[in-house]
Specification:
- The complex is a heterotetramer, with 2 copies of chain A and 2 copies of chain B.
- Chain A has 2 domains: 264 residues, Type I PLP-dependent aspartate aminotransferase-like (Major domain) (Aspartate Aminotransferase, domain 2); 107 residues, Aspartate Aminotransferase, domain 1 (Alpha-Beta Complex), CATH 3.90.1150.10.
- Helices cover 35% and strands 14% of the residues of chain A.
- Chain A contains 13 helices and 15 strands.
- Chain A has a 7-stranded mixed β-sheet with strand order 2-8-7-6-5-3-4, with helices on both faces. Chain A has a 4-stranded antiparallel β-sheet with strand order 11-12-15-14.
- In chain A, strand 9 and strand 10 form a beta hairpin.
- In chain A, helix 5 packs parallel to helix 11.
- Chain A is globular, with a radius of gyration of 26 Å.
- Chain B is of the alpha/beta class.
- In chain B, 36% of the residues lie in helices and 11% in strands.
- Chain B contains 15 helices and 13 strands.
- A 7-stranded mixed β-sheet of chain B has the order 1-7-6-5-4-2-3, with helices on both faces. In chain B, strands 10-11-13-12 form a 4-stranded antiparallel β-sheet, covered by helices on one side.
- In chain B, strand 2, helix 6 and strand 3 form a beta-alpha-beta unit.
- In chain B, helix 5 crosses helix 6 and helix 10 crosses helix 13.
- The two termini of chain B are 12 Å apart.
- The chains are: A alpha/beta, B alpha/beta.
- Chains in contact: A-B, A-C, A-D, B-C, B-D, C-D.
- At the A-B interface, helix 1, helix 2, helix 3, helix 4 and helix 5 of A face helix 1, helix 2, helix 3, helix 4 and helix 5 of B.
- The complex binds pyridoxal-5'-phosphate (2 copies).
């Protein structure tokens, strides 16, 4: 019996202690009529050896590609120590640290996490993780509306990640919040001050600013922030934490800084792994801390005056406040926050800065090489962090498929989201991409765009990489 | 000692970052960061040592019995971790084409099929990232369904008073008001109260079964009838599915939409607060509203269905396809168990709970529902102990830590005074249960004879009882150089 | 500076405390003439990201093959928990447990290890590991000669693993010990009693018996043991620990059992990994414990009477007894012993027995399928455990190369070691081989032996398996 | 609690073994086992919990400063572990053809090249499984060389009296008698004594440099001359190579054959007692005698050279090619360091040792060789402390455990009374060293004022001081049901 330790004599003794004849008798309160169906589609059990073989076969089918896709999830080097320690049983198999005295390990890590995130974003406080970047934005919108206590409109520019906008809509729509789109400037991709000004006086609870925005383009965050504040609206920043090693932290945007900062934590130590588990983070000004969703760890002292850590402000949360809670979130992404803490500690401020700078430089190199190909051009002319939108003279789907056949994932096809921009792909090169890989990409782009055949024709499926 | 206190300006792990500092002059100065963030500057050894030592300060399944009710703290098989961390799985970008993820998607598709069978639902979406997000999904689907019927008057979600806090919180997030239904003396929903509560305003009922009181709701069929009769829908909170896996299916009980906490029933790790996964299942009626993406199989190929093919979908709840790595772990676990193994989970988790309940009752502890069979968990109320000795449930919980056991869930559900919700899970041995029972007996004795030992507990943990009031009153949420807690 | 935590101000302060100007000054006692040479062949340092890429590329070059080679190292399922726990920092990065009070974890594991090994072999005591199976045999020969206190001859049958015999010769030859070969029976491969009887009265210190022997063949261990004891010689058993779940333990061989038991511990939880790290084990009768080489853990009590564990009988060892020590061994294979303990605890007696039985059955199935091919025959007719020697009508090298091209490692080429037996390969199938893999092997053997070409001709390099 | 005490007859982890019990009737009954071995019958969770908890009872580099002299307890980078455990490396059979292991063999070849450069040797064999086996190899090669010269009279190996126990033990295993050479007051070999000891009977000298006394042997050139002049050979025990990496090469010092402890200098884990790796290098003279296999490069292909191509080889020391996984870890470490990194190892391990020596001396501790520069380690003698307070080196060592530091090596080398051999390694920070120094000062103070605190130490470890005499006298080496230690 996999994972069940009971021997026959244990079972006998236990049934006797309970005073029943069989285990089945313990289910006597379930109405017989409901107990008919057996599991039919579930296979018989596997041994660990069998499932190991099976999973390896599955993994091998997926192989390995040289990846130039970003669009919200980024390939970074993760120090080996991160997951060797994060998967230690004591972190891996513990619950949410409700019993603080028995959970000081997790609690202190989360307190350190909060400190690091608050400092990275330049904010006063941070929580101990939300689900992911997209749902964190939805939570931030709800929080802004709660905090604003008046308006229920939120300005959500069109250059915010399209999926983030959809998720936010799915989550906040039932609470009668109005999400108002803002067009981006045609040739620069950023949200022009003139555009937001069309909403002057429109009683908005918040303005969302993604920096860099979905196109990788840098926004004029100071002006936008100051405008929003002048309107009495909160500023919700959506940021990439790695970029913050180089970019002005939201806490310093404009005269008084953003009010709520959220983002996808994945670039801090979470492997790409088909989209999860990642984690969302949220930081805010002290004034809004009681409106924050999610767990928060505080430092306090024990009965002997010794410093220790505990979950605090639980009165915001569903298990205390129930229908009046700031959110329904309960299980969050704790282990990813632990991994992120390890990741940041291992990189340090200098390491994170070098990583960010190398991403930036590699992306520039990539864009230069690709746009040297006739038929490939940049869509926007403003500075970017580590990705950029390119317009292709051929259908993006075909080009990407051609690259895939060479073991290259050439970027994210953006055409579906912004058809008005033509055939576009969003390309990214992080610090993990080498000069040879970038050259090789450009070479194949050149060939594909000019509709030259491979000579001899061949399609390599990249060898699976372990 | 905090990691920041180990930091020294200029210390760095040069092997963990690019050798050179690349040129960033293309970024306009006014958009650049001026001061470095407060990240620790420590060596790799310092970081490894610091976090290894911190880890040792945790209780965890791997080190202690952890009978936290409603949380299903069962053994997290190491194979699940190992196999979900295969390099190809870890390396795949979520936007990589489906053609490059057929192995992964095959696992996801099969997991959907397994969960459909287990829950008796017509379709499953794996995307919700935890139980509460599953609840949100389900209730949003209920709303979408009513909307699709042009039925705009339904404004209320019913929840039993014993419900988990996420249920009412979810209803609110979906724009519903919440009406609580009382529980009868035996722990079942008060049917009369339910009947008088339902009406045309009823959007639906959220129910956990077995309930958070550790008993199976015997009138589930009538309850379903009552709610359905007024046009409401039934939401199943699957947090306690462990108790009935392979024994009875939520679909057969009459539920329209459900979630499953894979981090409970399917043994993915809790990770000190997540990640989890809360897949949602729906019957034919609610199926069109499931969130995307969903994995479909076309011929021998696996594809992700999106908004295009599911126009009535409530949409998306996260940027990608859910907590993929958690789903892989659950899949491996499900395959190792197989169908017989799943039934055994229900059987032995129930056996363990009923055994502990019987033994604790014999030892003089008071069961909240002495006339009921325990499900996979059960409630002890320590009210009498408190009345006699002044020792409350929290004291006993803390004293258990000294004895090497994690405490059960305390003070939940709220309606039972001095409540201990105890869930041993099927992976614990009789010896471990007996040890815990003996510790409870010892503590009860201590409460009578030397109560300060209990009220002053814990004594052996890295810190002693913490001042929660101070924590909330003088908030210290981030470290600042120079500041200190003590 | 990878792995070095010193900041510039640390360095300054430390030099000042020492009273020197530069780090270089600390090397002033090294004669200048010797300090000339710089490292030239060593490359510049890599980042972890770079070396990770490089090692993955190396690993990918090696790919994955379906393995039917045994010959002393066996592919078994290893529960994932084994190495997840054995590589925990507390086990992985600790030293030999000299400070017992700070090493109870390792010490207790090794005490449990000794108990398991002693029980598996049926002996009184075990040590806490030697280097590997081959060198353990050499140590056993030295130990037998020390214990015998008279003879310096040891009977070492020709059907003992050829490399074990070479290693033993390399290690014991300088101590004037005579290793005497014994021919095996021509058609059965075992050591006949008649053969050993030719050494009757020849004053031997010990007889070595490998069970199963190198050919996989089972020896008549009872008769051989009794004969040796009647001659006043010790019996050194060389065994495969997995086989002992099925086979009579050496402690029960003959009337009084073997005296010293050694073997390769690899089948108990060590991955194949190109040959190491594995571990040697050694068990013996209580009477010989003071002649044992290697670490031994004993249970004792502390000053409060609490049970605890400590290294004991250290007076045998080099760090105390120096030139009179039982061996020079110091660092052994502790972590592998830890892994083996975990492995045995996770399998339990029933699990180990099932594994052994499945190996036996798979090997039988393999031999049946292969010998059904004309031109492939068994060399010996006696029962085997999980490998067998096959004679081929074509050169073994060619056949194995043909199989390799199909992703199959068809066995170990034994021709080099026993040319008198013709073209021979030793084949093995453990519990990890499936029926399909065995069928596929037989299919290709059939094709290769009958010199049929593949149609169409192709050579698959098995996809690397991660 | 022992794992056997958690065992219950009939309990088993069914997912860890084949479902069916296969037929074994082909094995004759008289060769079959009758009773099952005493392996524990525990659940997977029980095993995981038991060994996880046991692990927490260890001190280790990952959790404590561990300044064990002569052992080089430096940080074991996690990347080395991760990369050596890549599935293709783990899965390769040692007898798989070279064609299937070109990636692995490329790493091994490069490691040989790196070690040649570092040691100044002409060739390297990676096969020896630890330092002591490397020593055996080297001395066996010395014998093989003399034999090849028809020089059969050489019967003696010289070792300094400060030598590690493996040196004389090795000489004996190689059939030599051992002659000890005294050390002079400053820790160098007594040259006069050496001169009078050498002769036609001298096969060779084994030397560690820097020596186990923590100082560099300054007369190494003369020593080499003296030994070579009489036809003897020089063996270099590379246990202390960490101190001079990239600074001076054993080959340049005149050594003919050497070993390197990769589990020291190249930071592969000690694993609670191994595995290690002790590659051996030789100059041109001794090269033909190196053990096989050795990796060679022919064109772009890597091959294993065996007895066939190296007929004078001393043969083989283990069944396969050495501790391959350990060698891979060392290779990764060497590549991360690179040439500059290796020099820094010598520099900073030496800086740390000299700093500690200076600070301890200032704090009143007596250095064994106060007039010498420390190498990467140094000796404190606690003789005066013992004379004054009765507290001996072992007591101080045990008390250090209470303060969270692993003890230095005690009572080795034997010639220094109440000896502490302290090796901080380069990976420890100044703060950690300062903490240790402060603990030493505290303990010295305790020894004067409340010596029972020290002599009764340790107080905070899982067990207190153990009865070693009893352990050796009433041997309890394997557990038997019913027997108990207490
Ligand atoms: C009964 C019940 N419902 C819902 C939840 C919420 O699930 P999650 O924590 O996965 O969001 C829990 C979790 O503890 C629960 O016990
Ligand atoms: C000086 C010296 N020589 C030799 C050795 C033996 O090396 P190993 O333990 O690797 O066999 C050691 C190990 O401690 C040592 O310190």
């Amino acid at each position: 019996m996999p994972f069940i330790p009971h021997t026959q004599s244990d079972i006998t003794a236990m049934l006797q202690a309970i005073g029943v004849d069989s285990i089945d008798a313990l289910f006597s309160e379930i109405p017989q009529a409901l107990r008919s169906a057996k599991l039919q589609k579930v296979a018989h059990g596997c041994s660990e050896m069998e499932i190991t073989r099976l999973m390896r076969e599955c993994a091998e089918r997926d192989g390995h590609y040289v990846n130039f896709i970003g669009a919200g999830a980024y390939e970074h080097h993760i120090p080996a120590a991160v997951w060797e320690i994060a998967t230690r049983g004591e972190f891996y198999s513990a619950y949410t640290p409700y019993q603080a005295e028995a959970s000081q390990g997790t609690l202190q890590v989360l307190y350190e996490f909060q400190t690091m995130l608050a400092s990275l974003t330049g904010m006063d406080v941070a929580n101990a993780s939300l689900y992911d970047g997209a749902s964190a934005l939805a939570e931030a919108v709800l929080m802004a509306v709660r905090s604003h206590k008046g308006a229920r409109r939120v300005l959500l520019p069109d250059n915010v990640h399209p999926i983030y906008r959809r998720v936010t809509r799915s989550i906040v729509s039932n609470q009668h919040i109005d999400l108002i789109g803002l067009p981006f400037a045609n040739d620069s991709g950023h949200t022009a001050l003139a555009t937001v000004k069309t909403h002057e006086g429109a009683d908005c609870a918040a303005l969302v600013i993604q920096q860099p925005n979905f196109f990788g383009v840098l926004e004029e965050v100071d002006a936008l922030t100051d405008w929003a504040h002048a309107q009495g609206a909160l500023v919700i920043a959506v940021v990439n934490p790695v970029s913050l090693a180089l970019l002005k932290p939201p806490g310093e945007w404009g005269a008084t800084g953003a009010d709520i900062v959220v983002g996808e934590g994945q670039p801090l130590g979470a492997p790409l792994s088909s989209g999860g588990p990642y984690f969302g983070f949220m930081c805010c000004k002290q004034a809004y801390v009681r409106q924050m969703p999610g767990r928060i760890v505080g430092r306090t002292v024990d009965v002997e005056g010794k410093p220790g850590f505990t979950l605090t402000l639980q009165a915001r949360e569903q298990h205390i406040r129930r229908s009046k809670a700031t959110s329904n979130i309960c299980t969050n992404q704790g282990l990813l926050a632990t991994a992120a803490t390890l990741h940041m500690a291992l990189l340090g401020p200098d390491g994170l800065e070098r990583v960010a700078a190398q991403c930036h430089a590699n992306a520039h190199a990539l864009v230069d090489k690709l746009t040297a190909v006739a038929g490939v051009e940049r869509v926007f002319d403003r500075p970017v962090f580590h990705e950029a939108l390119l317009r292709l003279k051929l259908p993006a789907t075909d080009v990407l498929r051609g690259l895939e056949a060479q073991g290259i994932l050439g970027g994210y096809n953006v055409t579906q989201h912004y058809p008005q921009l033509g055939e576009t792909i969003l390309v990214c090169a992080t610090e993990t991409r080498t000069a040879e890989e970038i050259d090789n990409y450009a070479l194949h782009m050149q060939r594909i765009i000019s509709r030259r055949r491979l000579d001899p024709p061949r399609a390599v499926k990249a060898a699976p990489k372990s | 000692m905090l990691i920041f206190e180990l930091s020294q300006p200029g210390r760095r792990n040069s092997s963990q970052a690019p050798r050179d500092r690349a040129d960033v002059s293309a970024i306009p100065p006014q958009l650049r960061r001026r001061e470095r963030p407060l990240l620790p500057e420590v060596s790799e050894l310092q970081a490894v040592r610091h976090y290894t030592r911190l880890s040792q300060q945790n209780f965890s399944i791997d080190t202690q019995f952890y009978p936290l009710g409603s949380c299903t703290m069962k053994y997290n098989p190491r194979a699940c971790n190992r196999l979900a961390m295969l390099p190809q799985f870890l390396g795949r970008h979520p936007y990589a084409p489906e053609s490059t993820g057929q192995g992964f998607l095959a696992c996801m598709y099969e997991l959907q099929e397994i969960l459909k069978d287990v829950t008796g639902m017509a379709a499953v979406s794996l995307t919700p990232l935890a139980g509460a997000q599953g609840e949100f999904t389900g209730v949003a689907m209920i709303r979408a369904y009513h909307d699709s019927q042009g039925d705009a008057q339904r404004s209320e979600i019913l929840v039993p008073d014993a419900a988990h806090g996420t249920n009412p919180a979810t209803a609110t997030m979906c724009g519903y008001s919440v009406r609580e239904i009382p529980t009868d003396a035996d722990g079942d929903v008060d049917l009369a109260a339910l009947r008088s509560a339902v009406g045309p305003q009823t959007a639906g009922l959220m129910l956990t079964n077995p309930s958070t009181l550790g008993v199976f709701e015997r009138h589930i069929a009538e309850i379903a009838q009552v709610v359905h009769d007024v046009g409401g829908l039934l939401y199943y909170d699957g947090a306690n599915l462990n108790a009935i896996l392979g024994k009875v299916k939520p679909g057969d009980m009459g539920f329209d939409v459900i979630h499953i906490n894979l981090h409970k029933t399917y043994s993915t790790p809790h990770g000190g607060g997540g990640p989890g996964a809360g897949p949602v299942g729906a019957n034919e009626k609610l199926r069109p509203f499931l969130p995307v993406p969903i994995v479909s199989k076309e011929g021998e190929e696996f594809r992700l269905l999106t908004e295009q093919s599911l126009p009535q979908s409530i949409g998306r709840l996260s940027a990608f396809m859910g907590n993929a790595g958690v789903l892989l772990r659950a899949y491996v676990y499900a395959r190792i168990l197989g169908r017989e193994g799943m039934e055994r989970v229900a059987e032995f988790s129930t056996l363990n709970a009923n055994y502990m309940a019987a033994q604790l009752a014999k030892a003089g502890f008071e069961l909240a529902y002495p006339n009921r069979r325990a499900s996979h968990e059960f409630i002890v109320t320590l009210k009498k102990l408190k009345d006699k000795t002044g020792v409350n449930a929290m004291d006993v919980a803390k004293r258990l830590l000294d004895k090497g056991y994690h405490a059960p869930t305390t003070y939940f559900p709220l309606l039972v005074p001095e409540c201990f919700l105890i869930e041993p899970t099927e992976t614990e041995s009789k010896e471990e249960l007996d040890g815990f029972i003996a510790a409870m007996v010892e503590i009860a004795e201590e409460a009578r004879t030397q109560s300060e030992k209990v009220t002053g507990a814990p004594h052996t943990t890295p810190v002693r009882r913490l001042d929660d009031v101070r924590a909330a009153r003088s908030l210290d949420l981030v470290w600042r150089a120079g500041a200190s807690a003590a």
